[in-house]
Amino acid sequence: MLIQLTDQPIDVAAVLQAAQADGAGAVNAFIGTIRNQSTGRRVVRLHYEAYDQMALHQLRRVAEQAVEKWPMLQQVAVVHRKGTLEIGDVAVVVAVSTPHRAESFAACQFIIDTLKQVVPIWKKEEYEDGSVWVAAHP
Amino acid sequence: MNLSIALFGITREIVGSSVLQLDVPEGQSVDGLLTQLRQHYPALGQLSSLAVAVNNEYAEPTDRLHERDDVALIPPVSGG
What we know:
- The complex is a heterodimer of chains A (138) and B (80).
- Chain A is α+β, with helices and mostly antiparallel strands and 138 residues long.
- Helices cover 32% and strands 41% of the residues of chain A.
- Chain A is built from 3 helices and 9 strands.
- In chain A, helix 2 (52-69) runs antiparallel to helix 3.
- The radius of gyration of chain A is 16 Å and the shape is elongated.
- Chain B is an alpha+beta fold and 80 residues long.
- Chain B has a single domain (2-74), classed as Beta-grasp domain (Ubiquitin-like (UB roll), Roll).
- Chain B has a 5-stranded mixed beta sheet, covered by helices on one side.
- In chain B, a hairpin with a 2-residue loop joins strand 3 (51-54) and strand 4 (57-58).
- Chain B is globular and about 35 Å long.
- Classes of the chains: A alpha+beta (138), B alpha+beta (80).
- Chain A binds chain B through residues 32, 48-51, 53-55, 57-58, 80, 91-92, 112, 115-124, 133-138, and chain B through 6, 8-10, 13, 46-48, 53, 56-58, 70, 72, 74-80.
- Chain A: Pathway: Cofactor biosynthesis; molybdopterin biosynthesis.
C-alpha cells in the first residue's frame, strides 16, 4: 500500500508502478487535475493544504475499507499533492489493482469518492479577482 | 485546562493563526468547545460545517476533551 502526501509534482508512472501486482490483470487509476474554471469563474491556480497526520490516517482507513469491500484488491496507491498548483497539474492519483477489471473500477471510484468526503485536505481556488476556500460556505 | 487547537484552511484565516491556545473547562465536550469558539469567532458559525478532530478521528459532539489530545478544527474538506 502506498499512501502519501507530497508538495512535489506527482510522478504518475511511479504511482501506477506501485499499484502493479503479479496477481492483477487490471490496474485502474483516477488522476485528478486542475481545471481552468469553477462554477463559471476562471480559475488561475489552486492552493492545497492538508492536516497531514490525520489525512494520512484517514487515507489509510479508506484504503483498508476498500480492501474489506473488495478483498481481491492486490495493491492500493494514493498520492495527494499539497501546495500551489497550476492549471493542468495533477492534484491526486488513486491507483488500484485487481485480478479482473470490474472490481478495479469500483474500488478506485470508492476511494476517490470517500477521500473527497472525509480526508482533511482543503483547496483554495484563486481567480483573477479574488479567491475562495472551496465548499466552506453554503 | 489549556487546549492547543490546530487550524487549517478557512478556520486558520478566520482566527488568524495556525494554532489557537484556549482555556476550556476540564472535560469540556466537543459541542461545548464549538459553542465557545463560535462566540469568540462568529465567522466560524457561517461555515457549511465545522467538525472537531481528536487524535486524528472525527469526534462526536458529546466526546470529552483532554489536555493532551491532538485537537483540530475541520472545516468542510475539499480534497481531490
